[in-house]
Design a protein that fits this description.
Distance between the termini: 35 Å
Structural class: alpha/beta
Number of strands: 8
Radius of gyration: 16 Å
Mean pLDDT: 93
Low-confidence stretches: 190-194
Helix content: 25-40%
Strand order of the largest sheet: 5-4-3-6-7-8
Number of helices: 6
Largest sheet: 6 strands, mixed
Order of helices and strands: HEEHHEHEEEHEEH
Length: about 190
Amino acid sequence: MTKDEVLAEFRDAGALLEGHFILSSGLRSPVFLQKMFIFQDPVRTARLCKALAEKATAAFGKIDVVVSPAVGGIVPGYETARQLGAKAIFVEREDGRFQLRRGFQIPEGARVLMVEDIVTTGLSSRECIDAIRQHPGTLVGAACLIDRSNGKAEIGTTLVSLAQLDIPAYPADALPPELAALPPVKPGSRGLGA
């Protein structure tokens, strides 16, 4: 799947939004990718995650377990794992830190892929990877649908994505005038369960 095909999926789903958005990182942006508009359509989700699974397999080989950060990463993690024939588990926040809960385990020797929805600064990915590294198994890499950092986010392992984008993001105190003139909206899920 090409970058243009990935973006067409987001446009067709109404998931490529313009305005003034407060991202999970706290940064502000004129563009928000509302991935939940993608994930409400199982066929579209399967198409994107199949392409992501193929890219991850080409980069990392066989995957045994996919681990994703809650909440945004659960659906693409599950569907990518399904496409890979792997197990799908997720980390969630407890006492402010990501960790495996619900009896989830990573077996000794398992080849683990971290799957995220969208990477901007890489914070959620880094936190998820830190949680993964507290368990047996081998982290082979990470994958996401869209890398908003255009390859600049440092997450602590190799990251493959279906599309790298260069979407501007600004600190709240350094907004361009056209963005500052719009009312901000916070559509993300970072604060859930904190």
